[in-house]
Structure formats: structure tokens, C-alpha cells
Amino acid sequence: MHLHTTHIFHKARETLRSPVYIKYILLTDVLCVISLSTSVMEPFNSQYRCGSLIASGGFGSVFSGQRLCDGLKVAIKMIFRERVPLPQWARLPGEVGPVPTEITLLQRLAEVGVHSSVVRMLDWFEMKGRGFLLVLECPPHAQDLFDFITERGPLPECLALRFLRQIVEGLRFLHAHGIVHRDIKDENIVVDTQTLDVKIIDFGSAAPLKETPYSEFNGTRVFSPPEWIVSQTYKAVPLTVWSLGVLLFDMVCGDIPFQRNRDIISAAPVFTRQVSKDCQSLILWCLSYRPKERPTLEEILSHPWMEGGEAGQWLYRTIENTHSKLK
């Protein structure tokens, strides 16, 4: 069994295969189609076409889609009203009722500009009594990082570096505009398999950035830091950096370093693959037990390991292209 396929704590592969879950997905798909066929959804139906189910998570489901005016490929996220926790609602100027915080934050980003490493919301619609539809950009050759690693195994450090640099730059953009993602993990990173560019997706757990501690967490437990496990509190930047340490370990070793709470609290990852000393140094720095001892995003970018890799990235892309032609 591939190492990464045992990673069921943050992506329940066995659950996804179960008949009960499949029936639930099919029911969700049918309900979506029914919802979109009502007169309430006429504004959406006149602009977009909803396709097949891509994924389903805690707050709702994501479908493939197409913008009718130009044929643009999009992702359509359906958020079920009853699944959005109370802290994840906010007010949007001009709207009568509250909307999911995810919408308000993505709308804020849409107004200030775009970043190549952050997904862009193109539009959104409310389904009266049911929930909301978010229309998101979708790279033409998209694959989430979890599946990317599962198919290829542990990534070469040069490629992990390329991905990490883009992710950190995207996070700096988010923080500069007052947003903390709070659920950085491989499933929430989409890779364009042709360009090897990445985008941060899924702002369902995101929140306005603040200096004071947070006391609620809707992210993924195995990517959460020791302070959350121990005291149910954390600060934005140390949380983000810890998650990046878990993610970098995941990329170069092929699986996450921690699964049980006691493993997270120990903050002592065991490297299961040969990893360079500089890469290990950065991972261990990000996974420091004490939040104050972790680096900032800027310090991650200036770490010695982050200074190399351009030639290696070119070589990796050349090898990938060669393999694709031979298939």
C-alpha cells in the first residue's frame, strides 16, 4: 500500500469508498440539480451550467461547471446553510441577511485584486432556504496536492520548494489583506499539472486576521498545532506556520508526520525518507513546540533551503513531460 493512502485521518479514503457515502454523494448531486432547476435559481442558470460532483466536505459539495458566455471552466461550490457553524457567518454590505464568512472574505479579495496563488471567486448566488453557490476559478489541469502526492509519491525537494514558495507568498497576500486561512493542508492546495503552479482553495474555515488568540477551530486536526490540542487556543501566524511545517513534511516524505494528539504535542517528527539537512531544519523550525519559536512567513522565505531549486524545477518538469509522452 502506498504510504500516502494510509493518510485517512484528514482524507477518509475508506469512508469515500463506502456504499453509504456513495449514496449520500448521489443524493447530494440530485438535490443540487433539483435546486438549480427552480425559478429561484434563474440568475445562476442563465449564466452557468452545473456539471458533475468533484468533491464533498463538511460545509457542502463542489461541482465542475462552465460559464455560458465564454465556455470558461469553473468550479461551483454549494454550501449547505445548516452545516455552516455559527462563528462562520458575517454581514456583507447591501445584503439583507448574513452570509457565510467565506463569501465575505473572498469578496474582499475580489475587490482588492488577485494573487496567482489564491483562488478567485467570480460570482456567488443565494439559494433561498438551502444555502449558497460560489463560482470559483478552476485551473484547466487541476489536481489537489493530496492526489498529486498519492500518484507520484514523495516529491523531489526542488518541487516541494516551488510549491511551498508559492503557498507562502499566497498566505502573505492573505495576511496583508486581513485574512487567515486556518486550514492549510494538501487537500486545499490545487496544482496545475502542466505549469506546476498552485492555488490555495477552500476558505470555509477562514477568518478575519487578528493579533489576539482564537478560541475556535474548524480546520483539520492533524494539521493543528500543539497549543490547540493542549489549551484550545492559538494565534494566526504560529498556526499557519505549523501547518506549513506539516505540509512540507508531507510533500517530501509522502505522508503527514502526526496522526494522534500525543504525536502532535510531542512535536518530534520522524523523517521516513532521506531529506536534506536544510529541508529538515526548516520543517523542524516550523514545527517548534512553542509558538513564539516558529518562524514568520518572511523568515521561511529567507531560509537557506528556500534559496535554491530553480534548475531542479526545470529538470522535474522536463522529466514529467517526457513521461507523459511515453504513456
Give a structural overview.
The protein has 327 residues and is α+β, with helices and mostly antiparallel strands. The chain starts with 12 loop residues before the first helix and ends with a helix. It has a five-stranded antiparallel beta sheet with strand order 1-2-3-7-6, with helices on both faces. A three-stranded antiparallel beta sheet has the order 8-10-11. The chain has a two-stranded antiparallel sheet with strand order 4-5. α6 (157-176) runs antiparallel to α8 (236-253) and α8 (236-253) runs antiparallel to α10. It contains twelve helices and twelve strands. Mean pLDDT is 85; it is low at 5-26. Helices cover 39% and strands 18% of the residues. A hairpin with a 4-residue loop joins β10 (189-192) and β11. It has two domains: 3-137, Phosphorylase Kinase, domain 1 (2-Layer Sandwich); 142-324, Transferase(Phosphotransferase) domain 1 (Transferase(Phosphotransferase), domain 1). The longest helix is centred in the middle third of the chain and has 20 residues, at 157-176. Proto-oncogene with serine/threonine kinase activity involved in cell survival and cell proliferation. It catalyses: L-seryl-[protein] + ATP = O-phospho-L-seryl-[protein] + ADP + H(+); L-threonyl-[protein] + ATP = O-phospho-L-threonyl-[protein] + ADP + H(+). One of its GO terms (molecular function) is protein serine/threonine kinase activity.
